[in-house]
Specification:
The protein is built from five helices and nine strands; from the N terminus they run ββααβαββαββαββ. The protein is α+β, with helices and mostly antiparallel strands.
């Protein structure tokens, strides 16, 4: 909050001070979001150029190692090394693909999208455990205008992060909920993990920031999700739940309405 204190003329020998206070929380959050968006745009341009430069050499390494393996002239030790080279080149290639998605090289294909259908598709995705989720989907949910494939990627990122957070917990059941109001359609993912540490909750949408062990994540999933939702004129946020666990949610404008701000 911001406050101003001014002295007021004494009355009856008693000094009086007038204090005016104004809540500036929304203004601070808006400045932080604008600053973050500007940094993401600049980083996206840099990442795009780097990713394109890396793509061809990595493809060549993977192809050459596969050709040597197919030749069949090496011994077991050589083959193991070649398998390792190919695997690492392919892993680096997947990171490059994530970088290009982060830089949003593919334009949004705008059409009517049912967020409930997006959620169900996310739970049917690879490496997702649908039995660990409860669904609370609003009936007759209004459509949003956007790219179904990109919104599915957001849902998959949120679900994947939540499952990672709940790994090793008690019942490990999460909840996915959708809702709508006069202006927006929203989707939230609620997990029952340990929550987000206060010192990092403000950084989770930063590119390359991750709390996962080395080799288990690039730190781009939530950054990509942030970029996709902003490109759809929406908002994505995170907070800890009072009862434990984390809540990540996004809101998109419905039916041509202006995005909530």
């Amino acid at each position: 909050a911001q406050g101003v204190a001014v002295p007021v003329e004494e009355r009856g020998g008693v000094a009086t001070v007038l204090v005016l206070a104004r809540d500036v929380t929304d203004e601070v959050e808006l400045r932080e979001r604008v600053g973050h968006s500007e940094k993401m745009a600049a980083l996206g341009q840099l990442v795009s150029g780097v990713a394109h430069e890396l793509n061809n050499p990595l493809a060549g390494i993977a192809a050459l190692s596969q050709a040597l393996l197919s030749d069949g002239s090496g011994d077991d030790g050589t083959d193991r090394v070649l398998h390792s080279i190919r695997g690492e080149a392919e892993r680096a290639g997947r990171i490059v693909k994530d970088l290009l998605v982060f830089a949003r090289q593919r334009p949004i294909e705008r059409r009517e999208v049912d967020l409930n259908a997006v959620v169900r598709s996310a739970l049917a995705g690879p490496h997702v455990h649908p039995d660990r989720w409860r669904l609370d989907l609003a009936e007759a949910l209004p459509p949003v205008t956007g790219d179904a494939e990109q919104l599915l990627q957001v849902a998959l990122n949120l679900v994947s992060n939540a499952e990672h957070a709940m790994a090793g917990t008690g019942d490990g059941m999460g909840t996915i909920r959708t809702w709508a109001d006069d202006r927006s359609v929203g989707c939230e993912v609620l997990d029952r993990g340990p929550g987000i540490a206060p010192e990092v909750i403000g950084r989770i949408f930063e590119p390359f920031f991750t709390t996962k062990p080395a080799g288990q994540g690039t730190g781009l999933g939530l950054s990509i999700s942030h970029g996709i939702i902003r490109a759809h004129r929406g908002e994505i946020r995170a907070q800890n739940r009072p009862e434990g666990g984390a809540r990540l949610w996004f809101e998109l404008p419905r039916g041509g309405a202006a995005a909530p701000r």
